[in-house]
Amino acid sequence: MAIIETADLRKVFRSVKRRPGVGGAIAALFSREYEEKAAVDGITMSLEAGELVGYLGPNGAGKSTTIKMLTGILVPTSGSISVADLVPHRQRLENAQNIGVVFGQRSQLYWDLPLRESFALLRSIYDVPRERFRENLDHFIEILDLDEFMDTPVRQLSLGERMRGDFAAAMLHDPKIVYLDEPTIGLDVVAKEAIREFITQLNRERGTTIILTTHDLADIERLARRVILIDDGTIIFDGPISRLREEYGTHRTLVITLADSYEDVQVEGADLESREGNVVRLRFDRRRTSAEALIRRAMERYALSDIAIVEPDIDSIVRRIYREGYTEGAIGSPS
Amino acid sequence: MSVVFSRPRFRLEPYVEFAKVAMAKEATYRFDVFTNIASVLVRVYILRTVWVALYAHNAAPSELPLHAVITYSTIAMLMSLVMDIDQTRILRDSLHDGSIVLDFTKPMRVPLYFIANGTGEVLFHAVLMIPALALALFFVHIDVPSFGTLAVFLVSFLLGYSVGFCINFILNCTAFWTLEITAVQFIVTWITDLVGGELVPLVLFPAALQNVLVVLPFAAMFSTPLLIYVGHIPPAQYAGALGLQAFWLIALGAVSVVMWRLGARRLVSQGG
Ligand SMILES: Nc1ncnc2c1ncn2[C@@H]1O[C@H](COP(=O)(O)OP(=O)(O)OP(=O)(O)O)[C@@H](O)[C@H]1O
Ligand SMILES: [Mg+2]
User: Fold this and answer.
1) Residue A212 Cα, gap to closest chain B Cα (Å)
2) pTM of the model
C-alpha cells in the first residue's frame, strides 16, 4: 500500500503585481493587480513504504513547493494528498510526528545552543522515549562523527558539521518518512559522501521512505533507483533511473586527440560537439553508428594520438531533458 | 514494524524546556544585564533630581506628594526591566528569515513556542528586579506600602504585564503581512511611555485628558499598578481598576488569537 499519495495536486501562488518606481508603489496602494502562478500544476504520484525517490527538476520547477505541501506547511490550491493515511495540512501535528525534514538551505538547530541541547529539546518536542533517544543519539554520533562538536554552539559550526547535526536532528524520533530538500548543497566531496552513506543506511536498515531533491545528480545516481522529473510544475518522467538512461543515453562521445593540426574536423556519422586545440569531441548515436566504424573513419582521415569513448552520465542526460523537454520515445528522434 | 501514533495529547513539557533555554540564553548576555540595571539606576537618580527640582519651584500637587512621586518613578523604572522587553521578537525574526517554516514541521503549537520563549527571557529579567529593588530601597528610600496593598499591586502588575505582552505579540504578528514594522513598534513604545504613566504619572495631566488616558490599555500597563502602589487608588477602587485591566487583557488576548490565526492562514496559503 502506498505511504505517500497525491492526486492532481496543484498550488497556485497569487502575488501582487508590482510596477517599478515610486509611482508604481503608490498606484499599488489603490488598485492591486494580481499575478497567478501555478508552481505545482497537477502532480499525481504514489510512493511505496521504504522507497527512496529522487525528485528532480530545474530551478523553479516546483520541487520545494511540493515538499512543503507534503509536510503540511502549505495548503494545496486543489487536489489531494495522503501521507501515512493523514492529510498533512489538516492534521499537521499528527503528520509532523511521522516525518523528518532536512532543508539544505536552512537549519532546524537552535543557533545559540550546542547540538547536545538542541537534541534534548527535540526529544522533548517529539516525546521520544529516553531509552530510544539515547540509542539513536549514540548511533548518530558514531556514524555522523558528531563527537567533537556536540558541545559547540551551532553558530560556530562549519556548514558540513551543521548539516550532519541537522541530519541527526531530523531522525531522532524515528520518522517513517523523510523529506530532504537539497541536503548536500554546499558540501565538499567527503561530507557529501558521509551524508549519502547515512541516507543509504537510513533507507536500508530502518526502511525509511525518502524523497530527495537535489541538483547534484551524483546523489541520485548513488542513492535512488526511481526518479520523478518535474518541469513547470508537472511530471515529465516517473520511473527507474535505468529507463531514463536507456531512452536518453543514446548518445556517446568520441574524444580524439589529433597528432597533426587540421583545419576542419569532420567524421561521417558524428556531430562535432566541441574542440579545444587538438582535442575534438564528436557526438554520435550508438544505434546508428558503431564506435568501431567511427574510429576507423576517423583514423583514415586524420593522424590521431589518442582515442576515448565517453558514455553519457546522468548529468548530461538530465541536462538534455531540461534543455529539450522530455518526449516519450526520444530514442526515435536523435538530435 | 510500525509505530502507531495516536492523536497527540497536549504536553506542557516542551514549552517549559523552551522557557528554560531562553532563560539560560539571557543569562549568557551578562554584560547586557549589568548595563541594564545600571541604566535603570541612573534613570531613577535623574528622575529623582528632576522631581525634587520641580517640586521645589512649584506648588506640590495634593494628589502626589514628593516622596510618593519619587517612589512612583522608581517602581516604574523597576517595572520597565520586564515591561520593555520585546518578548515575542523571535516571531518576527523567524518570519524574517523564513525559519518559521521549519517550526511548522514540528509537532508543537507554534505560538506557544514563541510565548514560552518570551516568558523565559522575561523571567530571567524578573529575577534581576530583586537586586535592583534592593539598591533602590537603599539609595532612594522609596515608600513600602502595607502587605495587602503590595499583594494587590502584584496582581495588577501581572495583569499589566500580560496586557503589554499581548500588545507586543500583536505588533510582532503584523510581520506576517509586512516586514517593516520597526517604525510602528517605535511609535507604540513612544505612546506607551508618554500616556501609559511610565514617565509622568497620569494624575498630573489635565483632568479632561486624564479621563481619556486612564481607560486606555497603556494605562493598564503602567499607571494602574503604580497608582495602587503609591496609594492613589484606594482599596474601594481596586475592583474597578483591576476589572478594567482584566477587560483589556481579555480584549487584547482575543485580538492576539485572531491575529495569529489570520497570519498563520496567510502563511500556509502564501508560503514562507
Ligand atoms: N511563496 C511564494 N510566493 C510566490 N511564488 C512562489 C512562492 N514560493 C515559490 N514560488 C514560485 O513557485 C515556483 C516554484 O518554486 P519552488 O521553490 O517550488 O521551486 P524548486 O523546484 O524548489 O526550485 P529550486 O531548484 O530553485 O529550489 C517558482 O517560480 C517560485 O518563484
Ligand atoms: Mg527548492
Assistant:
1) 17
2) 0.86
